[in-house]
Design a protein that fits this description.
Number of helices: 18
Order of helices and strands: HHHHHHHHHHHHHHHHHH
CATH superfamily: Amino acid/polyamine transporter I
Radius of gyration: 21 Å
Low-confidence stretches: none
Mean pLDDT: 85
Structural class: mainly alpha
CATH architecture: Up-down Bundle
Helix content: 55-70%
Largest sheet: none
């Protein structure tokens, strides 16, 4: 059936090498910092407090469980990225293995995941930025500080800082990926330095008594927290979206994927252990700045100020990298005919998908400005878990379909490792709220309608057929 038609891998690789395409300017160090830039942000600076309320000191185990789900999937991503260094991430891999309809649905899913992630983090960035301004005695008009209905009892119409940061980073991405990578690398270095400062200073104030009881809400609480803090690891897969802009993708992409995930896992476990060792976990109720609270609790107020700065930079890099990943997926889908061709045009001077970048920036900037944060975050985790599940299945299928394909990196223990990735992801999905499942189902139904009404007929494969 036409909905299960797959793209020829050799044609995909040729398209990625065609002249006039995206510029190849990124190396392994850029990719590791890009991954860390996407991962270290809202998760470590905000979600650690909510996770502690759900799991208690066992939050450290929650992070390890979430990291295992990501780690197994990361090995599958690394094999695909080294074998098929083409823009589009799991969308592209699915198109080559599982068929057009599955590829479209996962691309549709990723558009929602990446887009809402950038919008949600922009709202968080706005809150920290306004807090920073207040320290200098500057206050924005209340009507421009949040989305309508976001603050109970306060009249708000528009989150202006959230829109502005989206537009500034969109402009940066549209002008060139090399320049964006340099800015990202500087901000990542600063925010990792801030996290390391917290670890060094906070470790002196840990009271082991605060770790007892270690698992106050049992295994269920620990697993629920793992499903929640999984959000903290979202982003390493965005590295694969850079495939066509990497100088040596066969070697550098696996380094970037696995290296960034490993570094962030170590940071998360250390930060959560120290944080819950300083402050009894019950005190994180209603707190949206748990890391700086721990330092204030320990009397290290000067370091707490640096943490707030690190949070702002951390969220900035998350928005930057996730917006980048979003535009490259749309670029790949447009090039395949599933979205309008205008979205895959490359700017002759900047070598970027200029039009697609601005469409993404303006659309999700307005969503950040007009939609409350709690609404934005509902679908992000389930969309990512679904993507990780599919890439784990796809790597096994590609092994059978194309055993001859050169693989600079091979996922170890196939099919066991991919199976473990599927199991971990599905188990975490079962701990998400049922309303999240309903909303996710509605979004996928909309995607099916768009596919059969537009994408299927405009597909490049359909034109060839």
């Amino acid at each position: 059936m036409s909905i299960f038609r797959t793209k020829n891998l050799d044609d995909m690789l040729a398209a990625g090498r065609a002249p006039g395409g995206l510029k190849k300017v990124l190396g392994p160090f850029d990719l590791i910092l890009m991954g860390i830039g996407a991962i270290v942000g809202t998760g470590i600076f905000v979600l650690t407090g909510t996770g502690a309320l759900t799991a208690g000191p066992a939050l450290t185990i929650s992070f390890i469980v979430a990291a295992c789900a990501c780690g197994f999937a990361a090995l599958c991503y690394a094999e695909f990225a080294s074998s098929v260094p083409v823009a589009g991430s799991i969308y592209t891999y699915s198109y080559a293995t599982l068929g057009e309809l599955v590829a479209w649905m996962i691309g549709w899913d990723l558009m929602l995941e990446y887009g809402l992630a950038t919008s949600a983090v922009s709202v968080g960035w706005s809150g920290y930025f306004q807090s920073l301004l207040s320290g200098f005695g500057i206050a924005l008009p209340s009507v421009l500080t949040a989305a309508p209905g976001a603050v109970p009892g306060v009249t708000t119409y528009f989150n202006l800082p959230a829109l502005i940061i989206m537009l500034v980073l969109t402009a940066m991405l549209s002008w060139g990926v090399r320049e964006s990578a340099r800015v990202n690398n500087i901000m990542v270095a600063i925010k990792v330095g801030v996290v390391l400062l917290f670890i060094v200073v906070g470790a002196r104030h840990v009271q082991p008594a605060n770790w007892q009881p270690f698992m106050p809400f049992g295994v269920g609480g620990m697993m629920s927290a793992a499903a929640l803090v999984f959000f903290a690891f979202i982003g390493f897969d965005a590295v694969t979206s850079a495939a066509e802009e990497v100088k040596r993708p066969e070697r550098d992409l696996p380094i970037g994927i696995i290296g960034s995930l490993a570094a962030c896992t170590v940071l998360y476990v250390l930060v959560s252990a120290i944080m819950t060792g300083i402050v009894p976990f019950q005190k994180f109720l209603g707190i949206d700045h748990p890391v700086s609270l721990a330092l204030q609790y320990a009397g290290e107020n000067w370091v707490a100020g640096f943490v707030d700065l690190g949070a702002i930079l951390g969220m900035t890099t998350v928005i930057l990298v996730m917006t980048y990943g979003q535009t490259r997926i749309i670029f790949a889908m447009s090039r395949d005919g599933l979205l309008p061709k205008k979205l895959s045009t490359v700017h002759p001077k900047y070598g970027t998908p200029f039009f697609a970048t601005w469409v993404v920036g303006i659309a999700f900037g307005l969503i950040a400005a007009l939609v409350p944060l709690n609404v934005l975050t509902e679908l992000i985790n389930i969309g990512t878990l679904a993507a990780f599940t599919l890439v784990s299945v796809a790597v096994v299928i590609l092994r059978k379909k194309r055993p001859d394909l050169p693989r600079a990196f091979r996922c170890p223990g196939v099919p066991v490792i991919p199976a473990l990735a599927v199991i971990f992801c599905v188990v975490l999905m079962t701990y998400l709220h049922w309303l999240t499942w309903v909303a996710f189902g509605i979004w996928l139904l909309i995607g099916l309608v768009v596919y059969f009404a537009y994408a299927r007929h405009h597909s490049v494969l359909n034109q060839k057929g």
